[in-house]
Amino acid sequence: MKIGIIMGSDSDLPVMKEAAQILNELQVDYEMTIVSAHRTPDRLYEYAKSAHKRGIKVIIAGAGGAAHLPGMVASLTCIPVIGVPVKTESLGGLDSLYSIVQMPPGVPVATVSINGAKNAGILAAQIIAIQDEKIYKNLENYKKELENMVLEKAMKM
């Protein structure tokens, strides 16, 4: 495995599956599971502590509300963590965003936009592409497809 995708609850799956979809498109191996910072702290600890030994290179962690999952994972491992703030009904995801982005010095969490799991997947792929030429080429092709899509739309105007 190369990328770990975790989320605090199955209610986060509609957002977090976008990370899995882009990783599939880029042909990047990943695993995906639920790890709740508040309801399963022992599972969180074991997941974070064992990730490196299991071959995980980057962890994408999505959470809503208090959103402690990305930061807690980052505190337990040296693997890069990308936080995905999940939109909430009560505060529209700002609570999640602030919880993830406001990390103390020494415990960084890269943070994407609210519900930005697709970008988290792309960023994770870019991180491992530093040492994986196949994934680098897949990213180049993906970016070329984005360019072509925009040019096609411009031609139709």
From TrEMBL:
One of the record's GO molecular function terms: 5-(carboxyamino)imidazole ribonucleotide mutase activity
Transmembrane segments annotated in the record for this chain: none
Catalysed reactions, as listed in the record: 5-carboxyamino-1-(5-phospho-D-ribosyl)imidazole + H(+) = 5-amino-1-(5-phospho-D-ribosyl)imidazole-4-carboxylate
Enzyme type, top EC level: isomerase
Top-level division of the source organism's lineage: Bacteria
SMART domains named in the record: AIRC
Pathway field: Purine metabolism; IMP biosynthesis via de novo pathway; 5-amino-1-(5-phospho-D-ribosyl)imidazole-4-carboxylate from 5-amino-1-(5-phospho-D-ribosyl)imidazole (N5-CAIR route): step 2/2
Biological process, per Gene Ontology: 'de novo' IMP biosynthetic process
InterPro entries: PurE_ClassI (IPR033747), PurE_dom (IPR000031), PurE_prokaryotes (IPR024694)
Domain PurE: 1-150
EC number(s) on file: 5.4.99.18
Sorted UniProt keywords: Isomerase, Lyase, Purine biosynthesis
Binding locations of substrate: S9, D12, R39
Family the UniProt entry places it in: Belongs to the AIR carboxylase family. Class I subfamily.
The protein's role, per its UniProt record: Catalyzes the conversion of N5-carboxyaminoimidazole ribonucleotide (N5-CAIR) to 4-carboxy-5-aminoimidazole ribonucleotide (CAIR).
Cross-referenced NCBIfam families: purE
Name assigned to this protein: N5-carboxyaminoimidazole ribonucleotide mutase
